[in-house]
Amino acid sequence: MGKQLIKNGLLIDGNGGEAKKDHVVVTENERIVYVGPETGYTPTGDETVVDAAGGTILPGLIDTHVHMMMEYSPLSERLATPFSFMYYQAAEYLKNTLHAGITSVRDALGTDLGVKKAVEDGLIPGPRLQLSINALTITGGHGDGYTVSGNTLDLLPSDYPGMPSGKCDGVEEVRKKTREMLRAGAEVIKVHATGGVLSATDHPEFTQFSLEELKAIVEEGRFRKGVKVMAHAQGAEGIKNAVRAGIHSIEHGIFLDDEAIELMLENGTYLVPTLLAPVAVLENAAEVGMPDSAVAKSKEVIEHHKASFTKAYKAGVKIAMGTDAGVMKHGTNLRELGLMKDAGMSPMDTIVASTKTAAECLGWEDKVGTLEQGKLADIVVVKGNPLEDIYSLANNDNIQVVIKNGKVEKNLLLDVPLTV
To answer: How many CA atoms are closer than 13 Å to the CA of 245, on its beta-carbon side?
Structure first.
C-alpha cells in the first residue's frame, strides 16, 4: 500500500475540536503516520496523493448497531429464498455499508464468524466487524419468532452450525447460552431486555429477563472473556434492569425516564439510539411487508424515541451512533446523523458520536475513531462541509473516498474507476 498523502480538505479529526484548514493526513501501509499542518510535513516523493478537492477529511465512521445478514423483506420472499443465498446478499450489504463511509460496525445479531473471516481475509470488501453472533431472548419475547398462528417465523435462520439459537429462560440457561455465543465467536453479547417493535407477541415496554438473569449474562461475559453486553432495551424498567446489571450499552432507549438517565450517567452506560429504525419501518412498511403490529408500534413510539434521545443528550449520556441497518437498507446509515441533529445534537457532536464515542463503545478507541498518529488508516473524504450540512452525508455520492486499513476501497475523485 505504501504511503498516501491526503490533502486539500477541511480536517475533522473526530475529537470534537475545531475543524482545521491546511492540514494533511499521511498514511503508511495500515497506519496513520502524520496528522497536522501541511507545512509540518516534508514529502519524501514516494507518496500517492489523494486530493480532497476542497471537501472534508474525516475518520472512518462507525455504526454500532447493524444486522449485516439481512434486509427486511416480505415473508413470501423469505420463504422462497434458499438458505445459503443470504451470504451472497450479505456481501452486497457489506460493500454498500463500506462505500457509505462506514469502516467499522458492531453486528447486533445474525452474522457468524465466517463472514468476519471473509472480510478480514480480503475475500469480500466490508467494514471491520465486531460480532454478537445471536441475541439472547426469553420464550415469547423479542427475538422469539413465534406468531399468533402458532408457527415460528424468525427474521433470520438460527440454530445452524456457527449460529446457536438464543432462546433461554432462567439463570442457568442464560449462562449456558452466553457460553455458547462466546464459543461461536461472540465479541460482544447481545440480549433482549425488553420487547420490541418488530416482534408480534410483545410490546417495547414489556420487561424481559430478570435482574438476576441479566447479571448472570454480564458475569459470564466479563469473567470468562472480558466481553461486554449490549441490550436491546426500549421500556424504562427494562433499561434500568439492564443498567443495574452492568450492561455496557442500551440499544434504542425509546422510553427513557429521569431515573434511567441518572443510572446511565452513574454507570457510564452508552446509549445507541437508532432513531432511524422506527422511521424506516414507517417509510418501508408497504414495500417490504412490515406487519401491521410493527407499523402501529412505530407510530406509537417515534415521538417518545426522539424525546428520550434529546433528554439523554442534554443530560450528558454517552451516545454512540447506531442505526439498526437491516431494518432499512444497508448503505443508508448516515441518515442517522441528520435525525440526531433534528433531535437537538450539534453537527459536530453527531460526528463525534459516529467516530470517537462509537470507537470507545466498541472498545476500539486505541485503533480507530479519530485521526491520530499510530491509529489504523480509516479515513473518509466527503464533498463539502458536513458541519454546514450534516444531511449531505446521507447521499452516498457525497462520500468521495473511503480508506480502510490504508487501502482505498472507494474513490469517486479519480477519472478512472477504482477496481475494488
So the answer is: 31
Residues 6+ apart with CB under 8 A from 46: 2, 3
> Which of the residues 240, 324, 356, 410 is marked catalytic?
324
In the numeric block, the cell 455520492 is attached to 397
Judge contact between 241 and 212, C-beta under 8 A.
Answer: no
Which phi and psi (to 5°) does residue 385 adopt?
Answer: -120, 110
Are 167 and 159 in contact, with CB atoms under 8 Å apart?
Answer: no
Q: What are phi and psi of 262, to 5 degrees?
A: -65, -40
Let me know if 190 is a catalytic residue: yes
Give the pLDDT of residue 206.
Answer: 84
Cβ pair 166, 173 in contact under 8 A: no
Specify the pLDDT at position 293. 73
7, 190, 215, 410: the catalytic one is 190
User: Roughly how many angstroms between the first and final C-alpha of the chain, as a whole number?
Assistant: 14
**Cell numbers for 159:** 440454530
* pLDDT reported for residue 418: 38
What's the predicted TM-score (pTM) here?
0.95
Identify whether 46 is a catalytic site residue: no
pLDDT in tens, 54-88: 999 999 999 999 999 999 888 788 889 999 999 99
- pLDDT band with cut points at 50, 70 and 90 for residue 145: low
What pLDDT digit, counting tens, does each position of 286-295 carry?
Answer: 777 777 777 8
The tens digit of pLDDT for each residue in 340-371 reads: 999 999 999 999 999 999 999 999 999 999 99
pLDDT for position 77: 87
**CA triple 199-302-362, angle to 5 deg:** 75
**Residue 272 CB neighbours (<10 A):** 27
Q: How far is CA 338 from the centre of its chain?
A: 16
